[in-house]
């Protein structure tokens, strides 16, 4: 058995538009954008969406939104989502990027949230 939950909403923007996007989303959501130490591609938007980590991410690709699903077993959660029709796009630093039916991206990541928060909100899967 493993567990998973949606943990993160990422607003992906091309690197060249990052500063403008950080300012826009901070003002639009009424929060103060904050750098994420050690992860320069991210700007946190603290408490913008209750219950989710929300951030702007600089990417070398088209603008989009994507979700992160955190899990206590990346391989098992990836296999579960692949069986539901997702297609693996890449693996990066222990995370798996999937394209789901409809074309959206989802990243399967190891647990990043507080362990008690994860335990309370995660769905158990057989």
Supply the number of helical segments.
Answer: 3
Residue ranges: pLDDT <50 for 5 or more in a row? none
Instruction: Describe the global form.
Output: globular
The biggest beta sheet reads: 9 strands, mixed
Give the oligomeric state: single chain
Total number of beta strands: 9
Using only C-alpha atoms, the radius of gyration works out to 15 Å
User: Which percent band covers the strand fraction?
Assistant: 35-45%
Helix content: 10-25%
Structural class: alpha+beta
H/E element string? Answer: EHEEEEHEEEHE
First CA to last CA: what distance? 5 Å
Mean of residue pLDDT values: 96
Pick out its properties.
126 residues; nine-stranded mixed sheet
Structure description:
By secondary structure, this protein is an alpha+beta fold. Helix content is 23%, strand content 42%. The chain is built from three helices and nine strands. Strands 1, 2, 3, 4, 5, 6, 7, 8 and 9 form a nine-stranded mixed β-sheet that branches. Strand 7 and strand 8 form a beta hairpin. The radius of gyration is 15 Å and the shape is globular.
Spell out the blueprint of helices and strands.
Blueprint: E1 2-14, H1 18-29, E2 34-35, E3 42-44, E4 53-59, E5 64-71, H2 74-83, E6 87-92, E7 95-99, E8 105-110, H3 115-121, E9 123-125
């Amino acid at each position: 058995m493993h567990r998973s939950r949606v943990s993160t909403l990422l607003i992906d923007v091309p690197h060249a538009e990052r500063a403008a996007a950080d300012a826009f989303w901070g003002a639009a959501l009424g929060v103060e954008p904050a750098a994420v130490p050690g992860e320069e591609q991210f700007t946190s938007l603290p408490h913008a969406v209750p219950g989710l980590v929300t951030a702007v991410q600089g990417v070398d690709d088209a603008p989009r939104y994507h979700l992160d699903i955190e899990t206590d077993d990346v391989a098992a959660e990836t296999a579960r989502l692949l069986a539901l029709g997702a297609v693996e796009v890449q693996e990066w630093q222990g995370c798996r990027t999937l394209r789901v039916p409809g074309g959206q991206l989802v990243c399967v990541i190891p647990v990043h949230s507080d362990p008690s928060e994860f335990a309370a909100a995660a769905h158990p899967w057989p």
